[in-house]
Amino acid sequence: QVHLVESGGGVVQPGRSLRLSCAASGFTFSTYAIHWVRQAPGKGLEWVAGVTDSGSHKYYADSVKGRFTISRDNSENTLYLQMNSLRADDTAVYYCAKDVWGLTGVDSWGQGTLVTVSS
Amino acid sequence: QTVVTQEPSFSVSPGGTVTLTCGLSSGSVSTSYYPSWYQQTPGQAPRTLIYNTNTRSSGVPDRFSGSILGNKAALTITGAQADDESDYYCMVYVGSGISVFGGGTKLTVL
Q1: By CA distance, what is A98's nearest residue in B?
Q2: Contacts of A45 in chain B (CB under 8 A)
Q3: Cα dist. A115→A41, A82, A112 in Å?
Q4: Which of A59, B18, B40, B81 suits a disulfide with B97, CB 3.0-4.6 Å?
């Protein structure tokens, strides 16, 4: 059974950094691409970033490109999202999500971790 | 900038059938966009219903089906039940590793 557990959320001041983690179990982590998806309070889902199974290819939404970095450690079955230069509009619940195939869709979701950017 | 469009809200009677759609502000959604559908109730993580246009995710009842209707992706729910009352999101793959969500449809069952 796929299990994804996000951690690292919290309150951070604008302009500061935060790193999220996603611990994966129940599947062969190193053979699947993984996504980060976020949801601002009262708003819809927003695709944020994706990384291929090997970690060699990384993709970002325009809203976070140049500020966020997705990475993974296949030896630890863990996904990361390094978030720099945080802004108030980055406030959201961040979900990690297991890819179906080729970064074309999601078949399993974590429960999410809340990031609040506020002074 | 790709904009994915969904009906903001929809209502269906219990036992009825409803079709939600997912389009593009410019162009048509085809199977090449690998449209997927997700259900979310307040305070919960999303749940995957459909991926790759019409493949049901594990454990999803066959009351939920995906298709392409005209120039849009579609999610059809037959025999609507009270617990189908949720927000529904589509996501399309726009290439180069990038995906985009629609704004979501709030479905009311009444």
Answers
A1: B48
A2: 38, 40, 46, 89, 91, 101, 104
A3: 10, 12, 10
A4: A59
